[in-house]
Write a sequence for this structure.
């Protein structure tokens, strides 16, 4: 097997792109500061300024991620090396033996990974703020969670490599291109594309079950809040109640119609 390499360099920033990005950040910070001041004025609590500074840091990190960060993936006959770079410096490196890899599978936009440790090499392969909000909303309403996630909930945004390290199952998300995927499939065989979750015990936590209720196709390894048998029983019960109401209305209409007929005679 030949070694495979992939390097995604940081985007080249044009003058126009830089001006638009900076203007967008300034506008977002101005709006955030205005809203923060309103909250402080209403609550008389200056600690809400911390939220503004935290938001500013998030904007800065997002700008750096899109403009400065680069990624490098290397596949040898024995190892898979994933690197995240910031300029010329390597900030994160994950070195995995191919023998330790359990599976490499696609990851969807509204999929939360339930592993002991999840390392994000490429942030574009992890759920963004919109889907993080949908995760929280799933605890209150599955319909609201789906509305917040939008139509792209099942869109593939990257790949998850699941591997064993120190007798623990760990996960790392990255974005290999088509050539790297072909090389990984050749090196791993059936382990590439296989869903490791189907071979694990079903999750029964409240959070996982709420996500399963909102996005059932993305969480086959989670025990549903309501079983299919219970769903069928509830649907049958609702149909019976509706039929009873309908019959009751018909009987009432017949009774009301009889006196009218007698009067007409």
């Amino acid at each position: 097997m030949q070694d495979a390499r992939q390097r995604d360099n940081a985007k080249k920033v044009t003058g126009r792109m830089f001006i638009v990005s900076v203007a967008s950040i300034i506008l977002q910070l101005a709006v955030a500061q205005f809203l923060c001041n309103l909250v402080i004025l209403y609550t008389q609590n200056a600690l809400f300024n911390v939220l503004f500074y935290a938001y500013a840091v998030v904007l800065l990190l997002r700008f750096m991620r899109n403009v400065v960060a680069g990624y490098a993936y290397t596949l040898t006959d024995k190892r898979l090396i994933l690197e995240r770079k910031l300029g010329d410096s390597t900030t994160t490196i994950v070195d995995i033996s191919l023998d330790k890899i359990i599976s490499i599978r696609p990851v969807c936009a509204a999929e939360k990974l339930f592993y002991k440790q999840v390392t994000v090499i490429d942030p574009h392969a992890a759920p963004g703020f919109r889907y993080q909000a949908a995760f929280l909303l799933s605890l209150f309403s599955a319909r609201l969670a789906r509305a917040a996630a939008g139509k792209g909930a099942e869109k593939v945004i990257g790949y998850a490599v699941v591997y064993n390290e120190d007798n623990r199952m760990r996960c790392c998300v990255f974005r290999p291109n088509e050539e790297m995927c072909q090389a990984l499939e050749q090196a791993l065989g059936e382990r590439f594309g296989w869903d490791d979750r189907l071979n694990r015990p079903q999750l029964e936590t409240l959070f996982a079950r709420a996500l399963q209720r909102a996005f059932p196709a993305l969480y086959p390894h989670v025990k549903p809040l309501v079983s299919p048998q219970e769903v069928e029983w509830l649907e049958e019960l609702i149909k019976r109640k509706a039929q009873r109401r309908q019959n009751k209305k018909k009987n009432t209409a017949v009774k009301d119609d009889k006196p009218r007929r007698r009067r007409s005679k």
